[in-house]
Amino acid sequence: MSDWQWQLGVLGGNTTAWVLGLALLALWLVELRSIRGESDRKRRATLAALGGLGILAVYLLTLQIRLVRETFEEVAGGTGIVLDNSRSMTLAGASGPRSDAVRALITEWQEDDRVSPVVYLFGSSTRGTMWSELAESYEPVDDETKIRDALSYVLEKGADQELGSLVVITDGADASFRAEALGLGSGAPAIHAVVVGGDDPLDDQAVVSLHADTTAYVGVPALIRADVRSVGELRQSELRVQLWHESRLEEETVAALDATGRGTVAFEVTPRRPGRALYRVLIPQASNDEVPQNNDRAALLRVGRERLRALLVAGRPGWDVRFLRDFLKRDGSVDLVSFFILRAAADLTAAPTNELALIPFPTDELFREHLGSFDVVIFQNFDYAPYEMQTYLPRIRDYVQRGGSFVMIGGDRSFAEGRYAGTAIEEILPVKLGAPGVLKGSYRAEVSKQLARHPIVALGPDPALTRQTWKALPALHGANMVSAIKPEAQVLLHHPRARLHNGAPLPVLVVREAGRGRVAAMTTDASWRWRFAADDTTVGSDEYELFWDRMIRWLTRDPLLEPARISTDRERYGVGAELVVSGRLRDDDYRPMKKARVELHYQPGNDDDGGAVVDTDQDGQLQTTLRAPSEPGAYEVVASVEGKELAREVFIVEESGDELADLETMAEQLQAVAEQTGGRVFLGTQDVPALAELASTSRRAAGLVSKEPLSSPWFIFLTVLLLGMTWVLRRRWGRR
Fold this sequence. Notes:
By secondary structure, the chain is of the alpha/beta class. Helix 1 (about 15-35) runs antiparallel to helix 2 and helix 2 runs antiparallel to helix 14 (about 715-730).
């Protein structure tokens, strides 16, 4: 039973009690003042005491004090079993696999039919299972041990099932578990713990965890830190740690361990090329290491360039060139190399070349030696012919098709006017070039209605505001004529009036995929006018910078601007662990792919690894759970719709994962839980009694008992008596 608790019945509770108490105290002080003229000290003391007691009695009577106690009754309680289903339960010590010991214990318990428990398996999640089939079906596979989540879940369920006792069977390999985090109340059932392996500690060396930046940069040192530990007999041995990159040993060191057998080692790596770099931290296996699976862990670095490299080649100085060049130079994330072509190789000069301030355009150095080092190449009103670049145009085409980016900006030396028709550059452009021609006059570019969500032109939070913003931007002047738009291209901006031969609007901005690269064609050289606000509006300036920032980021495949994205809930998993995939899919026009059937599969992968088919919701979002592949390595999960790949995400599968990395049992925390609830702890399964001996009664709430001792007739009589005596004595002794 719980202790008595007092409550106030007066309206207003504590606030009323304070106000009333102060008022009656003031009344008593007035009473004391009125009897100061009494010469007899005994009479004065008697009147003061009786007045104070009377006022106190009235105060207590007015408060309506109640004593309340909740009562319980003891009933036969149910028994619950909470069984660890994580992979660490498969490990074997000197006495054999832990899972075998659990099966033997369950089989022994099942022979005694006095108790029929409810059973829960826990690991990554907690779920119920059948008691009758438990011994045969128990195969631990989960990649996490979440003791706190499991107990919280079962205790909440147990309140409805009137459980009297819980038996937790686990190896306790959960370093995050703390007994005080459970918040156990007085009505909690008795919690017993069977710590499997607690009587058979392992000899083990392990890489507990890795810490590395997921993003690294070419030529910039990156740090990989590994937390390691050694337990059992191996704590006395030297702990050597190696760093491997691909199949090459990069470095080896000896870890300095503290008194608990733990330590940290750090390796510095310098990636040499962009892409993915897989590093492994490895502890060479000792002959008596009982868990060699946790000796090897991997870190996957996504290596990029610290800054985007942009090559800007301009045919001649101009306002459009000046504004774009200034914008790129001010962008701290862009490393800009720019050329203004003021002198061609064929220009005649009377002075030797080494005495000229204007050097010829370095075509061979740029387009033969260093082209692959650039992330985006921009031709701005540039005519290639005077600079003997015919042989380099196929190199630019191949560079784009291998994954590079290219932008052509209009002017009187660009597109057909720059004699690009029929060249390798036209092969990658999103438009077809016809006869030279430049459209004159001013106009406001209009965004294509179906592509208003495209990140390059999405200047507002929704398509309607985006179209409104484009209408308010300053007018452009002039545009290069083209003959047609290629079928796979996307027209983001177009002329409001001018038309092509087929009746389609004249494009102002067109983009497309070319092989693995991306290309943009902007047929005007007047975007610099967006840098200024229009006469009748405040838009401009910021829109210019946002436009070109989005253009460069989209061309270079910034992940945040991709139409479809998926992600995994973690970066690394154990073999066969649960892997949660979520994402948002949009089509090439950046419209949500509603109710799309998405196929998920692994690369590299095989038929045994499986996959899943899941439907997106109304917003194009998806979420599902897969099983990680059965072999360690670096993988990608790929999302496809109708055979077309839309998105992919990389992750690592390790033989150990976090589950097998830190295997020291947490018997102390389980002991604290047992002591708090009246349970018992068993190290190992040998001395565990029959399940019926661990059963217990359950406390059921029987109701509330309430008493009002100060509202009884006797207390009311006492109050009246005190007040009456005070009045009589005051009258007799001449007080009013």
